[in-house]
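Encode chain A's predicted structure.
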Amino acid sequence: MSTVYRKIAENKVHMSKSQVKIATYILENPNTVPFLTVGKLAKMAGVSDATVVRFATFLGYSGYPELQQYMQDSVQQQLTIKERLNISKQVYEKEEKGVYEIFQDDIANIQSTMEKLDLNAFHKAVKHLLQAKRIFIVANRSAMSLGVFLHYYLHMILDNVEFIQSLEMTAERFYDVNKEDVVIGISFARYTKSTIEIFSYAKEKGATTIAITDHLLSPLISHADIPLPATSQIPTFIDSFVAPLSLINSLITFVGKEKQEDLNDRLEVLEDTWNRFDIFHK
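Encoded structure for chain A:
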């Protein structure tokens, strides 16, 4: 039994009746609970949202997000896609209400990300992106979708952005990475080994490293100069990238604001090119 679950079990004798309900539900559903929001756990355990928050602080955590991080770290990397699909059958109802619950969980992810966002770290990331000689984006598997989106728009603003998807591409395009460069690593549980290896190599070479990942227990964090966590939990087999995408949208927007004068000229040229090749439907 992991430390967090052992702590819950050992403290049950000191809990109120409502807290015992939460503890019992967590211990009986250790693979499901790490993916649940405060509201969803409260509903499943039959208590109020406030009781769940108090339960986390009772155990010595700063709040439910920290408790959840430790629970996720203990089980998430061991769960297969099939196991996560089975979790969604337990949590989401079959009727229309279940559809809306998914929207609500994504809204909760954005809210959690907003509340935990370190604005100083965010603006520091923007500053380094603007000053970088080169920017490398490293993302694989499902996180590749976020990497493609970030690369597409950053490349529209800046000339020095590259997207690296594999270790094979690293040797040719990444061998001389240095302190003048910025490397953005994007990975969410279950974390891709190659992303971690490339990201740690960038850190060793002195590049400024920015991690876009799910929480501060992510293996990317130890190699990150600037951590930018974005909540991605959802009790199903997919990763919820709604909040990470909002974070990326914010990064792109603020980089664009600082480069607005140059970007205006660049976009005019792009518009002429798009018209020349008849890119868009009229």
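Strands lie at 135-139, 161-164, 182-187, 208-213, 226-229.
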